[in-house]
TrEMBL record:
Lineage: Eukaryota, Viridiplantae, Streptophyta, Embryophyta, Tracheophyta
InterPro entries: AAA+_ATPase, ABC2_TM, ABC_transporter-like_ATP-bd, ABC_transporter-like_CS, ABCG_dom, ABCG_transporters, P-loop_NTPase
Membrane protein topology class: Multi-pass membrane protein
Compartments (UniProt record): Membrane
Keywords, in A-Z order: ATP-binding, Membrane, Nucleotide-binding, Transmembrane, Transmembrane helix, Transport
The protein, known as: ABC transporter domain-containing protein
Organism in which the protein naturally occurs: Penstemon davidsonii
Segments crossing the lipid bilayer: 344-365, 377-399, 420-447, 459-482, 489-506, 564-586
Gene3D superfamilies reported for this sequence: P-loop containing nucleotide triphosphate hydrolases
PANTHER family listed in its UniProt record: ABC TRANSPORTER G FAMILY MEMBER 28 (PTHR48041), ABC TRANSPORTER G FAMILY MEMBER 9 (PTHR48041:SF22)
Amino acid sequence: MQFEDVAYKINIKQVGGFLKKNDAESQEKLILKGITGIVLPSEMLVMLGPSGSGKTTLLTALGGRLGGHLAGNITYNNKPFSNAMKSNTGFVAQDDVLHPHLTVTETLVYTALLRLPKTLTKEQKSQHAEAVITQLGLSRCKDSIIGGGLLKGISGGERKRVSIAQEMMINPSLLFLDEPTSGLDSTTSQRIVFTLWELANGGRTIVMTIHQPSSRLYYMFHKVLLLSEGNPLYFGKGSNALDYFSSVGFVPSVAMNPADFLLDLANGISFDDSCEDEIAIKQTLVCSYKENLSESVKSEVGSDHNQVHDSIDHDKKLKRWSSTWCQQFDVLFRRGLKERRHESFSVLKIAQVLLVAILCGLLWWQSDTSRHLQDQLGFLFFYCGFWVTYPVFLGIFTFSQDRAMLRKERASGMYHLSSYFMAMTLGDLPMDLVLPTVFFIITYWMVGLNPTPGSFFSGLFVLLYSVLCSKGLGLAIGAVIVDIESASAFGTVLTLTFFLPSGFYVQNVPVFIRWIKYISINQYSYKLLLLSQYKPGETYTCGNNKTCLVEHFDIVKTVGLDGLATYVVAMTIMLVGYRLIAYFALMR
Ligand SMILES: Nc1ncnc2c1ncn2[C@@H]1O[C@H](COP(=O)(O)OP(=O)(O)OP(=O)(O)O)[C@@H](O)[C@H]1O
């Protein structure tokens, strides 16, 4: 891999003072200022530099995962990065994004099933996962769950090794790692770097960032790139770095870890007696690089342009997807069920739904249409409110948990977005449908609603349909609004607004605002529930012992009954439409 004059800038918005006219001014910030280098198979390149020097940005750019204003030339075996290359490149991000409820083996077997070529059988893929578990020393914890947050699982070092193992699964010729040792003790760090060193010796190219390697680690790196505020200060063999800096006048005063010395220099700290300030020292080092190293690095890159290296996978024809859509769907569906089984039927969720069902049953105990019609109308109103609001919030939170995983796996080209979306939608169905069904059965008999099978099943159908519709709305909100707090606030406002046109609050709705009823899932499901319980054309006793038709219930009169077909069509459009919005929002 070669990279020449890589520069990257971003536009940052500067928020101005309280009374300024132009509150938001856009300003350009240069993050990478022309970085050049080359790394060959069997080499391990490490990027060193203080926090904020641009290591992660450069690594992301080299790994083909950085959008925006990227200038310069990055080639892999003389070819630019392509989508097909994703399946031959491993990228281990700084944060480990893993499913907390899966075991180490499950995690890696699912990765193998998704990432290994379709020419291998399931058994061969599982065996490959087992081999990687052994290779990365994870055998001891292979049956333990990953854990995370309050859920106790494997240790931080083991988690990092699982992340590396996921990328190792595809036997990548090029492996990028962002801070693979951060937060780990020195022995574990050493073990991880040693594993990477072995991988490099096996013919792979390893590129990584690291914060503060010990001297033992430092001497394992074949090449070092030192960065300071986006500028290169050194590129070359790690063992030559001290000689280079002493040749430009910077010598460590005491014997010290070379990595510490380089980091001090990148921070503008030198150990000689000169009284230069930090900015001046950094400036001197940047100029020294340009004068002494820049040309030789560029010529090294140039001389390599026409050579195509025989990486271990050179003969492998790169394919965009390693498995078919159906295989991806199958694996994602089974993985989703396993990962979500804990949250789907959690004791808290079941208990709260049962509690509300029993409370409703007691409050509306055996209300009949001859004496308590108004009460029943109120109950149906509550029904819709509860089973519209609850699924909306379940939907909003779905992507807050999955988004990081989706981003990571999609960046590696593991599956189609459509196979994920379908697997997630179908995998969630049991929870989406079972709890409202249980709620409906309990309350239906306790409240004493219309006992005919037709009324029961049509009522249940309406309830489940509106639950699916509301879940779709929640998914759309959660996918469009990334910030979970803003998404929840928006969901609250929207579901409360849905209550307005349901006929309970205002009966004399002006004509020009009557359209609002068409956006409210509540009013659709409410009308359909009414139709499932009371037959149009039949008389019922409502307020002040008057008898009236369903069409004349106060609550219905205000917005009118449009007929069954209208409601079913409208809800179907919402059910599909909201999911399409969510799907396209996730594509961004
Ligand atoms: N989207 C962004 N908006 C604003 N600043 C950004 C953005 N991306 C990167 N930066 C800035 O670019 C600089 C380099 O960031 P980068 O994450 O590459 O540094 P780093 O060397 O990896 O730091 P660390 O070691 O702390 O991870 C930082 O000053 C950071 O604040």
